[in-house]
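Tutorial, part two.
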Amino acid sequence: MFNFKMNKSKIELELKNGSDVSIINLVDNLIEYAHTVRASDIHLDPNETGMRVRLRIDGVLDDVFIFPKAIRSEVISRIKVMAGMRTDEHQTAQDGRFRSIFEDIGPVDIRVSIAPTYFGENAVLRLLSDKSAEFTIDSLGFSDTDKEKINKAIRRSHGMILSTGPTGSGKTTTLYTLLKILNKPEVSIITIEDPIEYAVEDLNQIQVNPRTGLSFSNGLRSILRQDPDIIMVGEIRDPETASIAVNTSLTGHLLLSTLHTNDAATTLPRMLDMGIEPYLIASTVNIVIGQRLVRKLCPHCKVKKALTGNEQKSLKSILAGDSSEVKNFYHGKGCEKCNKTGYRGRLGIYEVMLVDSAIRESFLRKASASEIKAIAQANGMVTMSEDGLKKAQKGLTTIEEVLRVINE
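Running the prediction step on this input gives:
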């Protein structure tokens, strides 16, 4: 078990050494500290007087250190060396990756992006410690009804399963969890990703590489010659990839992918924008999972709370009716376990839209997203807002957190 304060003091001690600071130890201790406080990203941003260091913990950035100006370039150079980048290039963006191994932590994979800014080069480090093995369809937070819909969809031998939401909403984790369920000796599963987030045993995972011309669309064409049963495309981001994905799912393959849309119902307009015919969308899409990530209440310091007038109004607008039954909500007081934030970890809030005959008919006549959503709700779909409020009632998160994420 790590002592957070001790790990932080290692960095502070190095910074006090002035000209004798060990850049190697400083960077290593920073990565170790970031991992112990469950940070997903480290942001190193140069400014006029030094370098601001921020950590993204549970989806929220927080200032933690200020590095002096004198060591700014040395810190960036050290990161470049670790990631195999050019240290003599300062005017172009570079991407790389490396692995740090710590005695008590084990291996931590780190993806690095460096870009030139007004005050010098910045760096963003994404920590990719492999937690995919920890996730199951139960631990992700799906309701029993939604789990039944998903399990029915993944049992089909063809069609598309789409996970939608903005960047950082947990779409890739959801797809990996579904792949784990589907990963059996009798099927061939191939993925094409940018980047490969987690290495999964018995999956053939392909990394997109623009330098060699290996794009999502080109890679998907190559995958079809590899005799796959199931394909995962990291993201459908252009018309060419969308067209190939749709045709792939029509020819007897189960295809999983992600789309950047606000909710499940916006999938149709998004695919229409990519030039896909409505009848093809209706014929191929099996299920759409809309999702967001909210911060979980710290179990050590959560307490019941009374709703304010503004919160009551917000609830009524979301529930579109009487919220008098909504009584038990919670908030986190803040403690040492959660670094005084009241939150510890994250969980998903979801809406799962099963593409049934009514939804297919709405696709064919190019119905608006709001109309599709209304049909889905009439057929039993629970929206992300409703799912979030149910989880807030159970003390898993807060109303403020649900409203913050939904209204982003």
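The longest helix spans residues 23-36. In part three we will examine how such features are distributed along the chain.
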